[in-house]
């Protein structure tokens, strides 16, 4: 039997080429893959992490950004616990498409889904979208915001770990007799994490 207390499904979406596959590979395998093709349909990887002595299994679905796969990728939204919407900070069109992606998310994902906006490729020097613009977009659409580099390994671990922590927190809150202690935040939004007696009753 596999030893984990929680299983969460995390789905990455966003335009082709923004770095979704590289973010997943960096987090799950610790590598920045050299030239690889576009994702075809959907790919998935697993990583088990530990938070407050609880093992959390993350099932990470990497969807193809290309339009022609849209009908396949949409079907993966529904059961997602968290959706990571990625754009490339050095490519304005990938930011301009965010409202289209949000429309898809609203149509196909659960209303309870945790939504995180990620500006990737911050190692690049040809930035086109200032941090504040990304932050402001996220705030207006009630999303967390984080900037990452899959290449330089900036904030990638933080991204997935904080999503895991946030989802675990939300799950524990559904249980009776919940109290909280300790806090972590993704860029200002605070999510409470605690040593979790309530979680011991799960699984
Ligand atoms: N400089 C830089 N390049 C990156 C970074 N992440 C990804 N790339 C590059 O961006 C290109 C696309 O990366 P992918 O991870 O395949 O992009 P994707 O979003 O999965 O693309 P699709 O599968 O077509 O949807 C590749 O050439 C990567 O090497 C990053 O953090 N910094």
From TrEMBL:
Nucleotide-binding is among the record's keywords: yes
GO terms, molecular function: G protein activity; GTP binding; metal ion binding
EC number, as in UniProt: 3.6.5.2
Localization per Swiss-Prot or TrEMBL: Cytoplasmic vesicle, Autophagosome membrane; Golgi apparatus, cis-Golgi network; Golgi apparatus, trans-Golgi network membrane; Lysosome
Gene3D superfamilies for this protein: P-loop containing nucleotide triphosphate hydrolases
Top-level taxon of the source organism: Eukaryota
Reaction catalyzed: GTP + H2O = GDP + phosphate + H(+)
PANTHER family: RAS-RELATED PROTEIN RAB
Name recorded for this polypeptide: Ras-related protein Rab-30
Name of the gene: LOC103505564
């Amino acid at each position: 039997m596999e030893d984990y207390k929680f299983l969460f499904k995390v789905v990455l979406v966003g335009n082709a080429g923004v770095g979704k596959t590289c973010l997943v590979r960096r987090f799950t395998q610790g590598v920045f893959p050299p030239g690889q093709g576009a994702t075809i349909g959907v790919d998935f990887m697993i990583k088990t992490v530990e938070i407050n002595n609880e093992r959390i299994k993350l099932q990470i679905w990497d969807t193809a950004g290309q339009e022609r796969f849209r009908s396949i990728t949409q079907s993966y939204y529904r059961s997602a616990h968290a959706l990571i919407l990625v754009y490339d900070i050095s490519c304005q069109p990938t930011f301009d498409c965010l409202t289209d992606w949000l429309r898809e998310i609203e149509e196909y994902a659960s209303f309870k889904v945790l939504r995180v906006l990620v500006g990737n490729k911050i190692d690049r020097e040809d930035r086109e979208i200032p941090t504040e613009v990304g932050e402001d977009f996220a705030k207006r659409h009630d999303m967390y915001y984080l900037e990452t580099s899959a290449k330089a390994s900036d904030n990638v671990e933080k991204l997935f770990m904080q999503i895991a922590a946030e989802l675990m927190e939300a799950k524990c809150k559904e249980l009776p007799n919940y109290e909280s202690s300790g806090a972590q935040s993704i860029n200002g939004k605070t999510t409470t994490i605690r040593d979790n007696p309530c979680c011991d009753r799960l699984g």
